[in-house]
Structure formats: C-alpha cells, structure tokens
Amino acid sequence: MNDRIAIVILNWNGAAMMRRYLPTVVKYSAGEATVYVADNASTDDSLLLLEADFPGCKVIKLDRNWGFAEGYNKALAQIEAEYYLLLNSDIEVTHHWLTPLLEFMDAHPEAAACQPKLLSLADRDCFEYAGACGGFIDRYGYPFCRGRIFDTVERDGGQYDYRQEIFWATGAAMMVRSADYWRAGGLDGRFFAHNEEIDLCWRLRLMGRKIFCIPESCVYHVGGGTLPKGNPMKTFLNFRNNLTMLYKCLPENELRHVMRVRWVLDYVAAFEMLLLKGSLGDFKAVWRARRAFARWKAGFADDRRRIQASCVVKGIAERRPFMLLWQYYGRGKKRFSDL
C-alpha cells in the first residue's frame, strides 16, 4: 500500500547528524508518515546506527555517492507515496509540524510543493539561510528569501507568519506531490548539489503549478553541513548550476540579455572575492564554473526545448523584475519587506 507521506532523508556520512536530529523526526512524525533514509554509500557508521537505534526507519542503500539531486531521484523512484517530504539530516522538527503542510496540500490541488518556516538551530530567533520563510529569485537568477537576502539574515518577529506563494521551496524541507515531481522530471541529477531545488520549482511554476510557504509549520536547521559556506566547491557548483538553470528556464526574449549581464556580474564577483576577500579559491571557482557551463551548455539544449514547450505561463510574479544586487548594495535594502 502506498504511503501518504514519505519523509526521505538523504544521508552521506551523516551519522552524527542523524544521531542528534533523527529522533525528533521519528517522534513527531509517528502515525503520519513513513520515514526513509536513503544512504549515498556512506563510509561512516550510518548504516549501523540506523539498524541499532532506528529500526522503524526504512533504509534505501544506494551504490555510490550520487549527490543530492540524483541521490534523491534514485531513492524516490523506489518509494510509492502521494507526497514526498525531502528533509535534510540536520533538521530538528517540532510537534505538529506535518499537519499544517498536509492539510494545506490536501486543500489546494493547484499546489505542487510547500515548505515550513526554517529557523536557525544556532539562534532559534533567527531565520535560517537555506530557505528561511520561502524563496524568490530576481531577474538575473539571484535567489533570496523572506527573511534572508544575501548574507543578511533577519530575526523572526512573526513578520512573515502568513502563508505566501513563493518561487522556490528549500530542498532542506520540501513537501512535493510525487505526481508533480515526476511530471517535471525530478531534480536535475547533473547538478549534483546546489540550485537543484530552485531549478525544479522553476520548471513546476512554468507548468502552471504553485509553491507555498506554510509558516504554521516550523523546523530548525543547522545548515552548511555538507559543504560549508566559503568552500570553493560550493562556489563552483552554485555558479555553474545557476547559469545552467537560467539557460534551461529563461524565456527566449530574455535569455540573451540576462546571460550577457550575468557574464559581467560573475567576473565582477570573482574579482571581488579575490581583491576584497582575499579568496583565491573562490576566484578560481567562479572562472571554472563559467568554463564548465560553456562546455556542457549544449547538452542542455533538449532540456531547454522541452521546458519551453511545456510552459503554460508567461510571467511569474515571484520572479522579481529588479536586480537584487542593486537593491541590496546600491539602495541599501537588506530586508525582504524593504524590497
């Protein structure tokens, strides 16, 4: 029999995280969902831990580290459920966290996915960087959130405690209809990690489906567990994948202009990382990302044609028409409510 909700935690050498945070998932999801752990061929004691301490969790053993995107695709293909709930291993959930998400999705068939409010485990009164209270994007592909713009993270004073249609839901805690997930083609496994959930949500939005943040549900996130901020590999993946997402999803009448502007902005960012922050690794990562995108761009031409052919909407309000860099640095707008 199919599960109504399958909570799926993708793990790679995350035994310490699971030991600390999986108990809350099991405790506060009992009777409402089946908890799965998809293991990306961990070399630590993750599997032993699951067997000894979490016998009620179902384990999917993958043959190698497929990364976040393809790891989820391979795991979810083995699960039959009405809703998938993608959940990071460094998430602490709270009592009654599932019910608002499920009730909303059941009552709103137009919604493909939703997310809870994400707060920081390090400071429980602050939003968490990787999703906060729902994601948006600017004209040039820069993501931001209710509660977080670039490195400015707001304190949670209830200012976003209302349901909101958003552009993207965080992959750290995303409930998505399985039918929509597969209809859109799932996460793009070639991305490996970073920007993959924004790419998926953009494809869903182009298909006429909607994404929401439901702040009545609240979870706490450590964040940065796999690749910490400032890691050159993270910089490389973010830039390469973001450019690829733009190439796939931008409408034809914007593609050339946006990509030309990004060419300039990316190299400005690279020199800023080198000259102002002294990060040679990040500087090189941006250059490598630009070259990598140029090399593999042709391989996404069929994806672009297919995505544009499936498009049923011409404009998405949650893709904001401004340049976020100018709003943030030029006009000093550091909070979502200022935009």
Explain what this protein looks like in three dimensions.
By secondary structure, the chain is α/β, with parallel strands linked by helices. Helices cover 40% and strands 20% of the residues. It contains 11 helices and 13 strands. β1, α1 and β2 (34-39) form a beta-alpha-beta unit.
SSE diagram, text form:
Layout: E1 3-11, H1 15-29, E2 34-39, H2 46-53, E3 58-61, H3 67-76, E4 81-87, E5 91-93, H4 98-107, E6 111-120, E7 135-137, E8 143-145, E9 148-149, E10 152-153, E11 164-166, E12 173-177, H5 178-183, H6 196-206, E13 210-221, H7 232-249, H8 252-275, H9 280-296, H10 301-310, H11 324-330
Parallel strand pairs: 1-2, 1-4, 2-3, 6-13
Antiparallel strand pairs: 4-12, 5-13, 6-12, 7-8, 9-10, 11-13
In short:
This protein is α/β, with parallel strands linked by helices and 339 residues long. It contains 11 helices and 13 strands.
Question: What descriptors fit this protein?
Answer:
339 residues; alpha/beta; nine-stranded mixed β-sheet; two-stranded antiparallel sheet; 13 strands; 40% helix
